[in-house]
């Protein structure tokens, strides 16, 4: 029952945070932080055998479900605090609601329930940040069009997936089919069509190339803090559910060869290559973030090209570690924009010199995104690539998949350069409570310190936010190194 309680707390807390936040932003965010803390405690405390029967379906706790709940709840707590610092109010509630539906979807034994929950629960992560984007999201007509396309993509992907699941369990599908209805080559063709359809649903949900326009427009207009729940974690949950169904219903014998294999590999490699290229050539941080997430999804889709046990396990590791890494990157983008009021690399020269804690956090995020041979994320990427493309083609694709070295390297080089523009005008971040001597705390009375807290938080807002980014970067590096789940 602890699992059910976790889902209920996250869902109710997310809705409460959204509703209260419309009236009192700080109170709504506080509710979100408290909810995320309770969710974290429940996720850690859940007994290993926890399960719930609900009619013909049920919820079963796995290491994967627990791991995602722990990491996601930590991320929500930090993102909520960063949201207070950036002045937005559209992140915490939708992120908690997305956490609730993701845990329910991954724990559910019925794929109908999983895809339906992901479709309905993920809408808030698109609509709330998009509607509250303000002038940065473009004219009202532009925002409306973006929200319409995003809602269509989220719901369309879920409806498509539910349709495939329904077909699989129908009298003419592979689960309930009579051998007199489908057999031999007919069965193989039907399974192949089902596999391509579920991969199409994944492509629509993840915004893979060439279905990426809606995702790109969305990420241009919202705070970067809203991106992890909507795309990094949201896509990861959808792909994991789709992989679980495909492995059981379709099987690796269909995915491993033939036209289906070529189509899936082509779709994945296109997104890996062009996603990495787009992240390399774009100058604004929002596009670098967005296309890096798209590239990560492309790597994960390679698991559908084999559906063997090793590939699916590697995809689990890759998706969770990548989501944590892109959460840290999104937080870094948001805080960097807040600190320097700039978002283009050409205008961010010297950012690391002015914000050394941001520099350390970015360095850890960069290392987590690339990985080191022998670590969980790097090995998962390698297994996915060579599982789908052995030999020289796999080597080429692996090199392309390592473009985070390049596009994140550009950001690092800009940070180590000479400060320019608004960055040059920003003093280096140091920490000293107003009203105390630089030599230390000993000469300041407790009264002075108490009176200084409020002013200190405001004065050192960016520094405290940078520490939050550092926390997320540490989580990312831990998962990148040793994050094998389920």
Describe the structure.
By secondary structure, this protein is mainly alpha-helical. It contains 21 helices and two strands. It has helices spanning 2-21, 25-45, 63-86, 92-107, 111-131, 140-169, 184-206, 213-221, 227-249, 252-255, 258-281, 285-301, 309-340, 351-354, 356-370, 376-388, 392-401, 404-416, 421-425, 446-459, 461-482, and strands spanning 51-54, 57-60. A hairpin with a 2-residue loop joins β1 (51-54) and β2. The two termini are 21 Å apart.
SSE order, one letter for each helix or strand = HHEEHHHHHHHHHHHHHHHHHHH
Shape: globular
Please state roughly what percent of the residues sit in beta strands, choosing from under 5%, 5-15%, 15-25%, 25-35%, 35-45% or over 45%. Answer: under 5%
Topology, number of strands: 2
Spatial extent as radius of gyration? 23 Å
CA-to-CA gap between the ends?
A: 21 Å
Low-pLDDT parts are 430-443, 449-457
Q: Kindly state the mean pLDDT as a whole number?
A: 84
| Biggest sheet details | 2 strands, antiparallel
* Domain module tally: 2
Helix content: over 70%
User: Structural class of the secondary elements?
Assistant: mainly alpha
- With helices defined by DSSP (H or I, 4 residues minimum), what is the helix count? 21
- Spatial order of strands in the largest sheet: 1-2
């Amino acid at each position: 029952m602890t699992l059910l309680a976790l889902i209920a707390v996250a869902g109710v807390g997310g809705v409460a945070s959204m509703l209260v936040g419309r009236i009192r932003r700080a109170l709504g965010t506080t509710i979100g932080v408290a909810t995320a803390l309770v969710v974290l405690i429940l996720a850690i405390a859940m007994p290993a055998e926890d399960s719930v029967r609900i009619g013909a379906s049920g919820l079963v706790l796995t290491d994967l479900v627990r791991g995602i709940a722990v990491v996601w709840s930590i991320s929500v707590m930090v993102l909520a605090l960063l949201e207070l610092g950036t002045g937005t109010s559209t992140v915490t509630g939708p992120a908690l609601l997305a956490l609730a539906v993701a845990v329910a979807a991954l724990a559910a034994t019925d794929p109908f329930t999983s895809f339906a929950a992901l479709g309905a629960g993920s809408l808030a992560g698109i609509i709330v940040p998009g509607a509250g984007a303000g002038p940065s999201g473009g004219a009202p007509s532009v925002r409306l069009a973006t929200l319409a396309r995003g809602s269509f993509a989220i719901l369309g992907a879920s409806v498509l997936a539910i349709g495939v699941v329904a077909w699989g369990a129908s009298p003419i599908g592979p689960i309930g089919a009579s051998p007199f209805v489908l057999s031999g080559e007919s069965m193989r063709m039907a399974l192949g069509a089902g596999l391509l359809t579920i991969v199409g649903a994944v492509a629509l949900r993840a915004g893979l190339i060439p279905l990426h326009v809606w995702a790109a427009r969305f990420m241009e207009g919202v705070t970067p803090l809203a991106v992890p729940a909507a795309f990094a974690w949201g896509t990861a949950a959808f792909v994991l559910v789709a992989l679980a169904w495909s492995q059981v219903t379709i099987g690796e014998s269909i995915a491993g060869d033939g036209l289906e294999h070529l189509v899936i590999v082509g779709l994945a490699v296109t997104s890996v290559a062009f996603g990495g290229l787009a992240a390399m050539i774009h100058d604004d941080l929002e596009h670098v973030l967005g296309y890096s997430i798209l590239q990560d999804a492309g790597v994960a889709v390679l698991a559908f090209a084999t559906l063997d046990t090793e590939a699916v396990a590697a995809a689990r590791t890759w998706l969770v570690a990548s989501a944590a890494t892109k959460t840290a990157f999104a937080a870094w983008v948001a805080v960097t924009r807040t600190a320097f009021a700039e978002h283009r690399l050409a205008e961010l020269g010297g950012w690391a010199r002015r914000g050394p804690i941001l520099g350390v956090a970015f360095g850890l995020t960069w290392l987590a995104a690339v990985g080191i041979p022998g670590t969980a994320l790097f090995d998962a990427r390698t297994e996915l690539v060579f599982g789908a493309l052995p030999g020289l083609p796999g080597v080429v694709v692996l090199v392309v998949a390592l473009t985070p070295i390049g596009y994140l390297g550009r950001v690092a080089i800009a940070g180590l350069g000479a400060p320019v523009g608004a960055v040059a005008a920003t003093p280096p971040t140091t920490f000293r409570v107003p009203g105390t001597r630089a030599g230390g705390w000993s000469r300041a009375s407790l009264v002075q310190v108490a009176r200084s807290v409020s002013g200190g938080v405001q004065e050192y807002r960016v520094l405290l936010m940078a520490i939050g980014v550092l926390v997320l970067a540490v989580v990312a590096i831990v998962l990148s190194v040793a994050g094998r789940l389920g």
